[in-house]
Amino acid sequence: MTRLATEFELALPPRDPGVPVHQWLYASLRVEILYGRLRPGARLPSTRDLARQYGLARGTIINAFEQLKSEGYLEGSVGSGTHVTKVLPEKLLQVPSQSAAKPALQGKGQPTISDYGRRAKLWRGYEDRPTRAFRANLPALDLFPMTLWTKITLQCLRRISTRQLMGCDPLGYIPLRQAVVDYLGRSRGVRCVAEQVAIVSGVQEALDLAARLLLNPGDRVCVENPGYPGAVRAFQAFGAKVLATGVDDEGIEIRQLPSRGGRLIYVTPGHQFPLGTTMSLARRLELLAWARKSGAVIFEDDYDSEYRYSGRQIPALQGLDDSGLVLYAGSFSKVLFPSLRLGYAVIPFSLLHHFEAIRSLTVRHAPLLDQLVLSDFITEGHFGRHLRRMREIYAERLSVLLEEAHARLAGLLEISGVEAGLQTTGWLCGGIDGESAAVAAAKRNLDVIPVDRFSQGRVAPQGLQLGFAAVDAKEIRRGVRELAIALESVGRSFIADR
């Protein structure tokens, strides 16, 4: 076992005046060890440091250490210090752990949870599972230029100033905000200046901040159906009334939106989640007209439209807005790597001061070192080159998926046209149920997600979300073969049950 360095002062319980100093010290250290606060292998402070901390004679501490050594709790030698024994006596005797002995909270001892706390539902965006066909919403992490990222990180660390160690503005590091402005203006047609850009931990935080800024309990929020569950849960936690609004081939259906009373509408026009369609220009203009008339703010989530494979790139909804009603957000999680918790939000000027104030009261600002590295990664041209390279690779993988699906999944799963993103949707044929298909696929070491899981209520027809970006062509071919077998088995069971 590796020795665990313990350079912190020990916080021992107060001594009862009636208990001798030696007995108090011995018992306190023994309890710390038994309750796991001093773990096996942990190094104890020196007798000299303990004597100075508690104002005790060094001999008193040495005597307590020697007694604990004789009982098997501590071990040590000259020059190596004193450590907690790797295998404790009580462990051999199977003494119950602290957690087993801890009484459960009951009755009046339980804290009162706020309305927000009761409404909040866990959203597991991160799942530690193997990357296999057809893992969705994930980039090809094995192809990320980590050596280059490490080099830039070291450069930033070498030149970081004491002023930068203090932190930055609540809306983020100005050079990164300017780099985001330049990138969004060229690639997405977003119209903004650096002062409007907030560097956030990702779209999920932008959703939380927008809800804090715009919603009161009972306010109505419109969302796409099917759509992104993380947005629905964020709004519901604030007590909003969520109105599930259908989508068609052109995007969210305007005729289903309320004529008045809506405070916020959440949309994914660049690449509708999870169906993958792109909102038409006519529908975007219609949505902006609805927002002007109703007074609602539009939250535009542009989560992965950097990767476009066909069709004409339509400017972001924000770039078409002349009324300051669109709050635009995106993330670097899908284009770089998910653990880089950095994204951006472009805030209308009318909301900017309030947004900044709320941000200052929550996380204060995003981690500055990550912002420094990302800023250099963008401005030195590495980001653009990485996007171009990955766009080519993902296009090749998409081509393999479509070719294999056409050959092997005809009559079982029809994949819709794919214009952008890291995943697509396949529609099940022959009355096959999405959940049954997902269970059968999992048994064949496949990862697919029924579209129903993204819906408020059941949708028709049934479909599966399939990712293609995170796995190579060989795995995609295996996945299609296995998926065909899985769907055929589900189809036979469906026919037999009729």
Layout of helices and strands:
Layout lengths: L20 H14 L12 H8 L3 H13 L3 E4 L3 E4 L4 H4 L5 H4 L13 H5 L26 H14 L2 H5 L7 H15 L8 E4 L2 H12 L5 E6 L3 H9 L3 E8 L2 E2 L9 E6 L13 H14 L2 E5 L24 E6 L11 E4 L2 H13 L6 H12 L2 H27 L4 E3 L7 E6 L5 H10 L5 E2 L12 E5 L5 H25 L1
Parallel strand pairs: 4-5, 4-7, 7-8, 8-9
Antiparallel strand pairs: 1-2, 3-10, 5-6, 9-10, 11-12, 12-14, 13-14
Structure, described:
There is one protein chain. The chain is of the alpha/beta class and 498 residues long. Helices cover 41% and strands 13% of the residues. It contains 17 helices and 14 strands. It has helices at residues 21-34, 47-54, 58-70, 89-92, 98-101, 115-119, 146-159, 162-166, 174-188, 203-214, 229-237, 281-294, 349-361, 368-379, 382-408, 434-443, 473-497; strands spanning 74-77, 81-84, 197-200, 220-225, 241-248, 251-252, 262-267, 297-301, 326-331, 343-346, 413-415, 423-428, 449-450, 463-467. The strands form three sheets. The chain has an eight-stranded mixed beta sheet with strand order 3-10-9-8-7-4-5-6, sandwiched between helices. Helix 1 crosses helix 3 and helix 10 (203-214) packs across helix 13 (349-361). Residues 1-5 have low confidence and may be disordered.
